Amino acid sequence: xxxxxxxxxxxxxxxxxxxxxxxxxxxxxxxxxxxxxxxxxxxxxxxxxxxxxxxxxxxxxxxxxxxxxxxxxxxxxxxxxxxxxxxxxxxxxxxxxxxxxxxxxxxxxxxxxxxx
Length: 116
Prior knowledge:
By secondary structure, this protein is an alpha+beta fold.
C-alpha cells in the first residue's frame, strides 16, 4: 500500500492498516468482535492471502478493498451497525494513512449472545 508524492513515497504494511481497522472495529458500538478461526486458515490456503483476525485487504486500482468478518451483539439493528462500521473504518484508514478506500464489505459470521 503506497502513497507517492513529489517528496518521495510512503509504504504501509497490511499489518499497520489492519491494526487501525481492528481498533476501529473494537470501538464501534454493536460489534462484538472480529471473527477468527477456521475461515481464516481456509481462505489463506485457498487464496494465498493472509487475513489478519477477520480483516482481509486487497489493493485495487481504485483504492483499498477491505473485507471484514465480524460477530455482532444480539439485539441490535445489524444494518445500522454495519453502516456505522463502514463509515468508521473508512474515516479511520483515510485519516490516519491517506490511502483511498474503494469498498468495505462486511460479513456477519455470528451473533454474540452474552450480556455485557
